[in-house]
Known about the structure:
46% of the residues lie in helices and 19% in strands. By secondary structure, it is α/β, with parallel strands linked by helices. It has two domains: 5-207, Alpha-Beta Complex (Spore Coat Polysaccharide Biosynthesis Protein SpsA, Chain A), CATH 3.90.550; 211-286.
Amino acid sequence: xxxxxxxxxxxxxxxxxxxxxxxxxxxxxxxxxxxxxxxxxxxxxxxxxxxxxxxxxxxxxxxxxxxxxxxxxxxxxxxxxxxxxxxxxxxxxxxxxxxxxxxxxxxxxxxxxxxxxxxxxxxxxxxxxxxxxxxxxxxxxxxxxxxxxxxxxxxxxxxxxxxxxxxxxxxxxxxxxxxxxxxxxxxxxxxxxxxxxxxxxxxxxxxxxxxxxxxxxxxxxxxxxxxxxxxxxxxxxxxxxxxxxxxxxxxxxxxxxxxxxxxxxxxxxxxxxxxxxxxxxxxxxxxxxxxxxxx
Length: 295
């Protein structure tokens, strides 16, 4: 057997998460000879350690902050035909590797063109019934199908591509603090005429993020939009409105979620809290009192 797949996992200060995802690789339904794992420590403190595994794992280091830089560091070491991106806080379905390899090969052969495969990301609620934070992450967080259908991109918690196509695209844009997944997928479609395919059967699981984690994520996304304004005040103002604009759609979608009316109202209040929490962040950025974060 020849190796088919390199799995790239950036990690920052999450030794426990890395241990869990490596354990889920141990439980995969394929022979471990087919795979190699590239873990990129994005300057964690303390430094990341690799636990014993039955498969080949390489620990790389990337001092430059940001997951896009970390992924590009791993791309310089890729040797397999296919590359799968995931994150240290994910858990892989037992047939994730088997399904991903099979489906990207079949689809590439059928279409006779480059393919980017965006697998499903299933959110694990923190409790039952789900909290407002759980519901927000399930319906408005890592909704891979919506990203593919509405935005024409997939996120790197579960993204597959052929290594030859990744090299042609020169990997990810390291200058971006957010939106690098979208930028990569759009470039693949524009430059390589690649097809972006959503795969509901290639599944990773992700624990629902807490309120604080969602606030941090929202601020980072706003910071990315702000940076893309290139210092032009009108575009910087527009960045805030673009960040807040989804509130209308999220409010309407919250009204039809199959939970009680009380929980729907709580969810709407929660979503507004998360979005509006970025306004003080935007003011600091606009007044140049801080720089946007990559983390």
